[in-house]
Design goal:
By secondary structure, this protein is an alpha+beta fold. The longest helix is centred in the N-terminal third of the chain and has 23 residues. Strands 1, 2, 3, 4, 5, 6 and 8 form a seven-stranded mixed beta sheet that branches. Strands 10-14-15-13-12-11 form a six-stranded mixed beta sheet, sandwiched between helices. Strands 7-9 form a two-stranded parallel ribbon. Strand 3 and strand 4 form a beta hairpin. The chain has three domains: 193 residues, no CATH class; 82 residues, Phosphorylase Kinase, domain 1 (2-Layer Sandwich); 209 residues, Transferase(Phosphotransferase) domain 1 (Transferase(Phosphotransferase), domain 1, Orthogonal Bundle), CATH 1.10.510. The protein contains 23 helices and 23 strands. The structure holds 2-acetamido-2-deoxy-beta-D-glucopyranose (NAG) (7 copies). The site of one 2-acetamido-2-deoxy-beta-D-glucopyranose (NAG) has 6 residues, from helix 5.
Amino acid sequence: MEFSTSSNLSFFFLLLCVSIILLLSEGQQSYVNNKQLDCYNNYSVTDGFLCNGPQRCNSYLAFRSTPLYDSPAIIAYLLGSEASAIAQINNISDVNKIPTDTQILVPVNCSCSATFYQHNTSYTLKDASETYFTVANNTFQGLTTCQALMHQNPYDSRNLSVDSQLLVPLRCACPSRNQTANGVRFLLTDLVDWGDSISSIAQTFGVDEQSIYDANGLSWNSLIYPFTPLLVPLKTEPTKIPTTQSPAPSISPPVEPSIVPESNKSSKKWVFIAVGIGAALILLALSGFLIWFFRLRSQRGKPLPPQGKRLPESVNYTAAASENYSGSVSSQGLRNVVESLTLYKFEELQKATGFFSEAHRIKGSVYHGAIKGDTAAIKRMRGDVSNEITILKQISHSHVIRLSGFCVHEGNTYLVYEFAENGSLSECLHEKSYRNSSCLGWKQRIQIAYDVADGLNYLHNYTNPPYIHKDLKSTNILLDRNFRAKIANFGLARTVENQDEGGLQLTRHVVGTQGYMAPEYLENGVVTPKLDVFTFGVVILELLSGREAASGDEKKGELLLSASIEQVLEGENVREKLRGFIDPSLRHEYPLDLAFSMAQLAKNCVAHDLNSRPTMAEVFMSLSKILSSSLDWDPSDELEHSRSLGHGR
Ligand SMILES: *[C@@H]1O[C@H](CO)[C@@H](O)[C@H](O)[C@H]1NC(C)=O
Ligand SMILES: *[C@@H]1O[C@H](CO)[C@@H](O)[C@H](O)[C@H]1NC(C)=O
Ligand SMILES: *[C@@H]1O[C@H](CO)[C@@H](O)[C@H](O)[C@H]1NC(C)=O
Ligand SMILES: *[C@@H]1O[C@H](CO)[C@@H](O)[C@H](O)[C@H]1NC(C)=O
Ligand SMILES: *[C@@H]1O[C@H](CO)[C@@H](O)[C@H](O)[C@H]1NC(C)=O
Ligand SMILES: *[C@@H]1O[C@H](CO)[C@@H](O)[C@H](O)[C@H]1NC(C)=O
Ligand SMILES: *[C@@H]1O[C@H](CO)[C@@H](O)[C@H](O)[C@H]1NC(C)=O
């Protein structure tokens, strides 16, 4: 290890000089000054920008698109931001491919954790040659440092393995009091590239040069280095960064920092990129040392692979979560899902689906295909699908369909889901071809209702933020091999806001399916979690009656299932009317008392006044009682019972 000691010594000397320069200038934050290359030493500047202002704020990162990270959806996934926000600020569509090397603005929430500002995201190692350094410098382009990664992750730097999940603290900062007093509202973390100078960066963002010097504690004779973050103070929200051809790294003659620039440029101060021979030599020696060190570590003798080629190789397609009743909420499960979304290559999906052939088509633009031995459902979607990705990547529940990954190709997004062998509930209940072969029995139906209630209860009460599905219907409930239900299609889902007011929101854009829409939504665009309670009531009625939510009839007009239950449960002869209502294909093989409880529950769910509807938590409680009674129920008893009734008449 003498090698590393001597290297450390020379580095220490360099740092000493740099620190002296730094101390001379008084700044808001300190520039990393290339210390991010020296992974095995601690410097306070490499851990993050110091908390010297508010606890949290909105901030921005600048990221360069690469062949792998080339759409708002994928960049949002990498950096823990929101695709729609990225698309909007950069004036591009959510799913379109961004030309390589375009600077993209990424809005993130920045917060103070202990002493440093950071924005947390996570990253799963995909290749054995990845190191803390390559993740920080190559994948995250310098938005984090190897030191910060090492300090916040439990893995030893020599002990990283494929599939290790890293917490990635991205460098961001909030304006200090002094900056706020000067009108600064946001700080943007920009990445220095070859050929940049403070003046070119100031020009790009339309800010005053001096404010950049001040914000980073730089003075006119400081050097700035490529692949390091620099704070740019902004007085207004930034807009799309104009595309500029970044010049190729040019070997310009060494520039003496002490030479004051020509006087016709008068007081203009300059900071030069470190391409001077001296600096280049140090860089070379350093990267040589690093490469040597990493080779030693990985014992593979492979040079660091170029960024664009490290496509994900492992497909994390684990078996569906275990099917226990109450244990379906787990924070560990959540982590796994968040971090296991895979970016698929389009070729992989083509191969899996036989080039999207008819034989692999399930319905519409949904295909099935084998990916690494597991069957998956692959759905092609146009337009903005970030809503579905953003929601599903945060959710892990055995009764919510699992998104395993996605792929963006030529304006289409391909979402890869777990495969539900038995298709949709709607097909099972309403399609003739299905009904004859496998009619759902009573216990299966109650189990399905219970599963869906479990999933909705989770969405309403256990996710952060809570969600409203908004588009529940029997076509969006999928059944797996064992006829256990999974809620699918989150395209219209949205977060619950105004939780104090019962999650009330208004929309002018009412979309939904006839027969499932709650009256207050249809009439006034009112969106609350009770919307899902209503549609769930309709689903129970479908399960009980086998009828469709809305049946069209030319003469009598539309017949809504939700409107029919009141009649059944009111007045005389409720038992007879209920028997008449229940799906004839159940052939009286059901416990009438429990069917009555189900019908009563459904009726409460579809109450016209949303305040009289139960909450999803209450519905789930009721259903768990009905389910346990149903599981105890022995069909032969009922058969006897109904026979004796029949004989009696
Ligand atoms: C760096 O700091 C960490 C704790 O923050 C400590 O465990 C580690 O030994 C330090 N490394 C060096 C080289 O000083
Ligand atoms: C956004 O892009 C469209 C074309 O894609 C262009 O017409 C429009 O002017 C742009 N808006 C801004 C604010 O740059
Ligand atoms: C920042 O946080 C707020 C509330 O916590 C959230 O609404 C917003 O979407 C977040 N912004 C980003 C870019 O993640
Ligand atoms: C980010 O991660 C750190 C742990 O390294 C934690 O202390 C902090 O609370 C996290 N911040 C947020 C906003 O989750
Ligand atoms: C750091 O990453 C950039 C690309 O972002 C790459 O060009 C450069 O060679 C990397 N530096 C080292 C020392 O690997
Ligand atoms: C490396 O990881 C393995 C398991 O992942 C663990 O057993 C071992 O103790 C680790 N070694 C070091 C030096 O951290
Ligand atoms: C506050 O900002 C002004 C102008 O930007 C600067 O001259 C002054 O030194 C700053 N004060 C502190 C305490 O940083």
